[in-house]
Every structure is written in structure tokens, then in C-alpha cells.
Amino acid sequence: METGSSDSIVVLKDNLKMILEEHVRLINNLEYEELSLLLDYIRQANNVFVKGVGRSGLALSGFAMRLIHLGFRASIVGEITAPAISDGDLLVVASGSGSTHSVIKAAQKAKEQGAKVVCYTTDAGSELSKISDLTLVLPAASKYDYEQEVSKQYAGTLFEQALLLVCDAVFHTLWQTSKQDAQMMLKRHANLE
């Protein structure tokens, strides 16, 4: 197996540094008071549902898994085992542009059923944001930021990465306040893998 050239190694290191610097800039510009409201929405929900498309969907699926480890009832919209959403439930959605059709439709349906909707987006004025009870703006580029003014990364990559990290921070905060130890949570981890 060939080793990478020194030029490739330098470029890889520079790219990783650039990505991390973009995240430091993003976390310094988050609205933490808004983000902290999500904690209560989750704690008060009978069931938590998540919906995103592509990499945003993957990030939210990982978040749902962690909520289950904490003992919350969480489901991924579209999975065959997901129950019906109803009054007292919460739908957490993500769309960088705030215009993803299937995510908007899910949010509308959730509202019709009496559920609360929280959205992650880059656009506080988006259609998705207008439907939502709480909008969490991640100051990242949407997939339509071709000028790379907000992020040097491809399309909505910074949004998708930030979504994963912010969801992990929300999970970690819920965990710290739950007084559950890791062994207790591990009992809820999948054991049919």
C-alpha cells in the first residue's frame, strides 16, 4: 500500500483545520437561549419523532437513537415501526434551506395532529420555520450557497455536520441532567445487532 504524498497530507490537514474553524465560528454564533428551549420540548413530549432528508436525516436518526438510550420514546418518520403522531408529541425536523418538500409536509401533518414542531434550518424566514413552534437557526450555508461565503465546504455540509454536533450537545445536556449512568443507558442500547 502506498503512503500519501506530503502534498496530500498537508492539504488534508489544512482541510480538517478549516472545517474545525468553521465549526468554532458557528458555535460562537448560535442562539443558545433558543436551543435550550428544545430541552423542555423533549422532556414534555409523549413521543419524539425526527424527520430529515439525506445527511440531515442521518444526523437526526442518530439523535433519535440517543434519545432512546436516555429512555425517551423516539421514532424516525417513515420507518415501518413508527407510530402515529398525535397531540402531546414532538416532531424535530431539519432542512438547511427550510424548503424541503417532504419535511414541510411532515411538519404540516404534525401540526394538524396537535403535535409541536421544532426545526433546524439556516433560514429563519423559510416556509418550514413559519410552520414550526420553535426554529433553531444553524448559521451555516445551505446547499444553495454557491458563492461559498459562509462555508468553503461543499453544499450544505457545514449545516449537516453542525446538526450532528448540536444534537449531540443536546443529548449530552439531557444526559447530564437525567442523573442516569452509562451502565443504565447501555441496557437500552440495541443488543440484536
TrEMBL record:
Gene Ontology molecular function, alphabetical: 6-phospho-3-hexuloisomerase activity
The EC number(s) this enzyme carries: 5.3.1.27
Domain of life: Bacteria
SUPFAM superfamilies attached to this UniProt entry: SIS domain
Keywords, in A-Z order: Isomerase
CDD domains (alphabetical): SIS_PHI
Keyword Isomerase applies: yes
Stored InterPro entries: PHI/rmpB, SIS_dom, SIS_dom_sf
Pfam families assigned to the protein according to its UniProt record, in alphabetical order: SIS
Family named by the database record: Belongs to the SIS family. PHI subfamily.
PANTHER family: 3-HEXULOSE-6-PHOSPHATE ISOMERASE
Protein's name according to its UniProt entry: 6-phospho-3-hexuloisomerase
Organism: Pseudopedobacter beijingensis
